[in-house]
């Protein structure tokens, strides 16, 4: 993933290129001077990104203006763009106001600088007054529409990614849900096959969870599950996938992990849960235990579909052997009580 600084640099370059494009759709006032909306992309990146992309975009636009022609007007444009960039950065940083008020100030400031530059480069300002008024109107209307559409696109994109994330997450615990588990399960096995690496899975089930709901209520049961999810999250390695598969059952996908390593991880999980005091809504503490079924995918094995089934069978064996225990399909650890 790109760093925030890299993103700002790219935004500045793109805004500068957009400014150059806008210069090619300009109004020719005289042989040396053109009117356009090149300042809109500059104040836009100032509004959303701060100083760095603003200065970069202005530099790109200045370079583009000199490629079009080198004359008195282009040198005035250089100082104009620098003034717009620096001033816009200051406005965004220090003006405490709502987004539309800040945008209005940016539009008016940039237009003031642009109009001042026009006044400098033309001999008789009254002769270009019609162009100047049209340019002011274009800036206000075009700038307002720009912010509206950019803000609309940003909000739509944020909602999309939020809905997508929510569709992949369990509403109660915030962990991955069973749909995400299926996707990660297939991915991890594919990667294990490609890299000729082992991978493993732990299925974790809360012992006697129904009794918790029956005794303390479903609100207490939900609180226990949330605290358990937080505890399990602290026990995972980087790259592990922790999911709530439904009810009181959780899963832990372990890439690059042998069955021996998986059993050690499962043992630490079992021990941490058993030693943890879960706080109920009535402020009482509750001790829990979990049973864990472990299975591993061995490099070169063709039994990829049986990984989950073996872990499920191992979990069933753990339940049958007294709970609060870690089992594989072949053996169980000693019983902890």
Helix content: 55-70%
The tally of helices reads 11
CATH topology category name of the largest domain:
Arp2/3 complex 21 kDa subunit ARPC3
Tertiary shape: elongated
Order of helices and strands: HEEHHHHHHEHHEEHEEEHE
Pick out the low-confidence regions.
none
Strand content: 5-15%
* Structure summary, number of beta strands: 9
Can you put this structure into words, describing what you see?
- The chain is an alpha+beta fold and 337 residues long.
- The chain folds into 2 domains: 4-167, Arp2/3 complex 21 kDa subunit ARPC3 (Orthogonal Bundle); 178-327, Reverse transcriptase/Diguanylate cyclase domain (Alpha-Beta Plaits, 2-Layer Sandwich), CATH 3.30.70.
- Helices cover 63% and strands 12% of the residues.
- It has 11 helices and 9 strands.
- It has a 5-stranded mixed β-sheet with strand order 4-5-3-8-9, with helices on both faces.
- Helix 4 packs antiparallel against helix 5 (99-121) and helix 9 (218-235) packs across helix 10.
- The longest helix is centred in the middle third of the chain and has 40 residues, at 129-168.
- The radius of gyration is 31 Å and the shape is elongated.
- The two termini are 46 Å apart.
- 36% of the residues are buried.
- The mean pLDDT is 88.
Salient structural properties:
elongated, 5-stranded mixed β-sheet, 337 residues, alpha+beta, 9 strands, two-stranded antiparallel ribbon, Arp2/3 complex 21 kDa subunit ARPC3, Alpha-Beta Plaits
